[in-house]
Design a protein that fits this description.
This protein is mainly β. It is about 10% helix and about 30% strand. It is built from two helices and nine strands; from the N terminus they run βαβββββββαβ. Strands 1-9-8-4-5-7 form a six-stranded antiparallel sheet, with helices on one face. The longest helix is centred in the first third of the chain and has 10 residues. It is globular, with a radius of gyration of 15 Å. The N terminus is likely disordered.
Length: about 190
C-alpha cells in the first residue's frame, strides 16, 4: 500500500499518470493520530500485491472485497474510491467507482457494493456499463492483472460529477480537492 500527499496536477491525464506511478509519503494531520500520519488502505481478504479473493471475480460471485482505511486528514469531508485494472491490455478498465463516501465511514465490508453502501455514497458505472462493483474478468491468456484500489480523502462533501461520470470525469473533479490518497493493489488471472 502506498500513501501520498495529493499533488494537484494541471490536468486529469497528469493525475492518472501520478496514480499509475505510485509513491510513498506522509499525509497531513489526521483524526486517527496526533500530528502527521500515514493514510493506509487495507483489506482483511488480501494483502497488498496478493491475489484477490475468488468470490470477487465477475464470474465467481462478483462480491466487492472488504476494504478499510485509516489516518485521514482532519479536513476530510468525503472519500472517493476507485478500482482500475492496470494491465496494458485493460487500458485502465474501471472495476469500481464510489463517490461521496461520508468522512465517518472508514470501511466497506465484503459484498458492500449494491447493498451495504453508506446512504450518501454513490456507486458510478464501471467498465462493464453496470453500477457498482464489476469484478476481475481478465481475458484468458492475458496473464495476471493488477487491480489498483485508491481512496481519496477530499475537502468537499459532494463531488461535482453526475451518476454517468467516467473515470476521467471523476479524476478531473477530484483535482484541487484531494487532501491525501492511499493505494492497495491486488492481482487476479485466469
Amino acid at each position: 500500500m502506498r500513501c501520498t500527499d495529493m499533488i494537484v496536477p494541471a490536468t486529469a491525464c497528469a493525475l492518472t499518470a501520478a496514480l499509475l506511478a505510485g509513491c510513498a509519503c506522509a499525509t497531513g494531520p489526521t483524526d486517527d493520530a496526533k500530528g502527521p500520519g500515514d493514510m493506509r488502505l487495507t483489506s482483511t481478504q488480501f494483502a497488498d500485491g496478493a491475489t484477490l479473493p475468488a468470490a470477487s471475480a465477475k464470474t465467481q460471485g462478483n462480491r466487492s472485497p472488504a476494504l478499510s482505511w485509516e489516518g485521514r486528514p482532519r479536513e476530510t469531508m468525503s472519500y472517493v474510491l476507485v478500482c482500475v485494472d492496470l494491465a496494458p491490455i485493460a487500458h485502465e478498465w474501471v472495476h469500481w467507482m464510489v463517490v461521496d463516501i461520508p468522512p465517518g465511514m472508514t470501511q466497506l465490508p465484503a459484498g458492500a457494493s449494491g447493498g451495504a453502501m453508506p446512504d450518501a455514497a454513490r456507486e458510478l458505472l464501471n467498465g462493464f456499463g453496470e453500477r457498482g462493483w464489476g469484478g476481475p474478468q481478465p481475458p484468458p491468456g492475458s496473464g495476471t492483472h493488477t487491480y489498483r484500489f485508491t481512496v481519496y480523502a477530499l475537502d468537499v462533501a459532494k463531488l461535482d460529477v453526475d451518476d454517468e461520470a467516467v473515470l476521467d470525469d471523476v479524476l478531473a473533479a477530484i483535482e484541487g480537492h484531494a487532501l491525501a490518497t492511499c493505494v492497495l493493489e491486488g492481482t487476479y488471472g485466469r
